Structure formats: structure tokens, C-alpha cells
## 1
Amino acid sequence: MEFDVNLWRSLITLLSLVLFVALMAWTLNKRRRQAFDDAAQLPFADDEPRDPPETK
């Protein structure tokens, strides 16, 4: 069997589709929801309170 460019393109497209569907299934899995919610709140969590800005 000879592999031409179109066969490679088709295989890569199919592989990309399978990986995309797998990623979506993993992301939307209900068991992962709490971990993703916790990660989404990380930018808003401050370890140390900041001093108010000084005014002149």
C-alpha cells in the first residue's frame, strides 16, 4: 500500500477529530467539574492581602 499525500491528510484529520472529541469528553466530564471550578477561581485567590495604594 502506497501512502500518498491525500491519505496522510485524511489520517491526520481523523486523528485530530478523535483527539478533539476525547478532549471535549474529558473536559465536560462531571467527575472533573470540581477540579475545573477550583482552577477557575485561582486567579481571584490572594494569599496575602495587598496594601492600599498610597495617595499624595
## 2
Amino acid sequence: MSATMMGAAETATLELEKGLPDRIIVESKTGKIIGTGAGPKALLLIMTKSDAGLGLILIKMTEASEQIKQILG
């Protein structure tokens, strides 16, 4: 499911000539799902409560994504 969400976001942003997406964020009444690429064959997804602030989450997620890319080569 997460790969499908990222693929749909890629298709949409490329068709709108906005380049590749850095991340996707899905918000609902009960929580948020945030996804980002972590290399050519990996995705990093997190789920949060609906009231979670995204500032620090996005910073730490970017750092974790870079570490995963390095580990996976």
C-alpha cells in the first residue's frame, strides 16, 4: 500500500511538472501517515497521532532516511 501511495504521488507531481515528491503526508481524524524514500528500493513510513506536530518528526525522518540509504548502499 505504501509503495502505491508513493507511486501515485510521483505520477501526480511529474504530470504537473513539479519534480519528484520528497515525502507524502496523509492526515485523518485519528492520525497521520508520513512516507519518504530511503533509497531506490526502500521506503520509510511512520504513523503518528492526529495532533502530532510535524517539525521535529520531519527532521528526524530525513536523518533516518539518509542513514537507511547509507546502510543499504
## 3
Amino acid sequence: MFRLSLSARIAFAQLAQMIVFFAAIIFILGSTSRLFDKTAFLSERLEPAVEKLNRIDEQLSSATALLESARQEDLRRADRMLVRNRPIRHIRTLATQEFPALAASPDIDRETAARLLSAADFFRTAPAPGTAAAMDSEVEIDGLRIKLTGAMQDPPKARIVALELAARLQAIRTSVRNASRHTAQVTTDARHELVSRRSTLWTSILAVSIGSLILSIVFLIAAIRSTRPIGDITLAVRRLAAGDLSHVKIRASRELEETADAINHLASTFRAQREAGAVEREREVRTERLAVVGRMASAVAHEIRNPLNSISLNIDLLADFMESPEHREGRGREVIATVQREIDRLNEITEDYLQFGRMPKAVIGPCNVTAVVKETCDFMAREMREGNVAVTIDAFDNTARVLSDEGQLRQALVNILRNSVEAMPEGGTISIRLSAVADGIELTIADTGQGIPDSQMARLFEPFATTKRNGTGLGLAFVQQVVTESGGKVRIESGQGKGTTVRITLARAA
């Protein structure tokens, strides 16, 4: 018995879904296009015709009112209005061209076309026996207008002609108003029909969408039933990704069994790579530990060598002074003071290494970053004053709070500010700015110091890397560790002779 393959079943289900959706889209697009055509006909052709009729009615009404006043100035104005606007000519254009064109439009039904033609009939029918139709009254109106112009010097006669012309215009205006009301009613009915069609369209779209959805669900269920074994394959792949290298056994179609065999082969390969990788990682860890121990031993030896040499030399001097009583008092105290300073230096170096190596786990919580900055500057005020360094603080909010360990953040700021002071031996300015950014609060510390050479920029946060004569290379490494544990970011911008700017971004506390 012939059976479709898994890929053929899935392709058939997808093809059926595509056919259903394309049919629904074609139906929706066709219905929407017809609705848009009807809307365009109403707004671009029918409604302008109604507006044109209303405008002709207003012109005839104004001319009639001026003629009935019988004042010479009004009569001249009425004459100019009729010459300039030519309302009768526009009526003829509507009756012979525009209304027939509207009725012949494919966007309307036969009933609407017949109603438009009946509106045009108002212009073709004489309003009273013995008078011309509105569309054929241009010659009559021009004759009365010329007659009125010739009678301007005879007011009584001019009044009679003006009233006759006004009566004729009033009769034409009646035809225009009838045609306007008829056309306006056609427009209103077309608008109501448009609303009804729009409602019907939305109902049809909803019905077609629901039908398409139901058919899609049916095809989807069929596809799911055909691809159910793929779920077992997916679970096996996830277990493999999670590190489970156990054997996979699946009874399904030929394609899925081959996939299961490939997964088992891949698991075997991963198992072998894992065993080899474990050995390699163990060797790398031992190598790295030895390298770190070597770098730290080298750094410690380098840092304590000079103080130890100084202490040894001064102890030798002290021994010489002890043998010479005449130098015992004054020079002995100087030597002892020098030894004490070097011992303090050794203690400071030891504390720096211990602080970096045994830094306690950060206690992250909300802290007022503006207060921390100001208090740290107050703490270092004497050091900055002795270095002839001025500090400015620009905080956008004195109550702004960030998430960090307050104590460690203070020490990080001390390290940064001390670096800035040491980079300005002749004095300078430190500008501190707090600003709100998209991902929290940014603390910017900029100095006018000597800057950092480009060759050192890549190693700024590397432990034991320093450009200072007596530096341990742990200050900025400590800063990076504090900021990273707080979930923030730190970056440094500098250049030789251009000063240094440190930017720290921390998450804002709620």
C-alpha cells in the first residue's frame, strides 16, 4: 500500500493551508476593492455634483435678490454676476454631460443610475407652460440681461425688466433646487448603502476568517498527528543539549529513525569530546593558576623589593650611628622615621593585595549615589586641596538611588579620584556629573590630567597592570569588579595629554 512520506504529508497540509488562505485573501481584496470604488465614486464624483448644484442655487439666489431690489448698483452687480458665473451654462453641462456620465459609471447600480437621470430631467423640463427648460434658458436670460442693460437710463422700465428676469431666474432656481434635493437624496442613499456594504464586508471577512481558521486547525491537527514522533526527537535533542548523552531509541518512519541514529552518533562524538575536554580544561586550569601565582609573586616581589632595600640600608646606617654616639640622637631618629615609612608602605601594599584577593561578597541594595559622591569628595578634600585640584559636581537629582554595595562603591570612587589627582601633579579640575540614561544612571568623572597612552588602554582593568611608579595595578581592577557585581558597566575614555573620563552606568533603584 502506497503511503505518503512525512515530508509529503507536511507539504500537503501546508499547501492546503496556503490555498485556503489565498482564497480568503482574494475574496477580501475583491470585496474591499469594490467598496473602495464605491467610496471613491461617492466622494470624488457624486458629492462634488451636489456641491456644484448648491453653488449654482446660491448664485441664482444672490442674482434674484439683487434684481428684486431694483437699485441700479444692484442691477449692475446682478448683471456682472450672471456674466461671470454663467450658471445656465453650468446647468446645461450638468444635464448633458456630468449626470449622464455619472449614470453610466460601472460603480453604481441601475436604480441609482435611473435616479440620477431623473434628476437631470428637471433641467430638461420647462417649469411652466410657454417657458424654456432650465438648460435651454441661456439665450432667454442673455436677452433679458441685454434688455436690462439698455433700460438702465429709464428706472421704471429697468425695474420691470429686472423683475421679469428675477422671476425667470427664480423658475430656473426651482428646477435647480429640485435636482439638488433629488441628487442629495441619491447621495444619502448611496452613503447608507455604503455603510451597509461595509458592515456586510466585515461580516463576510469574519466568516471567511473563521472558516479559514477552522480549516487550518483541521489541517494542523492532521500535520501534528503525522509529526508526533518529531516531539520525541525534539526531546532527545534537548536532552543532548542539556548534556544527557544517553542512547535514543525511536520507532517511527524511516526518516525519523535515521535522525535518531544521527543523534546517537552525535552523542557518542560529544561523549568523546567531553572526556578529552575535561582533561584539557584541567591542564588549562593548572596552567592558569600557576600563571596567576607567578604574576602575583612577581608583582609582590617587585613592590616590596624597594621598601626592603631601603629598610636594610637604613638599618645598616642605624647600626653605624649606634657605634658613633655623637650621631646617635638626631640622625638615628631620621633613620627610624624612614624605616617606619617604608614599613607603612609595605603594609599598604599588603593591604591592597589582600583587599583585592579577599574582597567580601557585595551586598547589593539601594544607595543614594549623589550622597556617596559628595561624601567621598569631602573625605578626600584635604588630599585634593594639597594637590591644588578643584572638584565640581553636577547632579540631576540629589535623591537618585542606584543598586550597588555602598561601601565598595565608595572605595571604587576613592580609587578613581586618587588616580585623577595623581595624574595632575601641577593641579587641575575634576568634573563629576550624574545623569539619567536609558538603562539607569551614569556617573561621569572627568579630569584634566596627563591622560593614558594608547598602548595602555587595552590593559586598564587587568590586575597588576600599572603605569605608575609605586602603583600596584589593582585600583581599576577593583573598580571593574565592584561595578560588574552591581550589574553595571564601566568604560574609560582617554588619550595622551587629553585627560581621562571614567563613565560608570548603574541600574536605577525603584
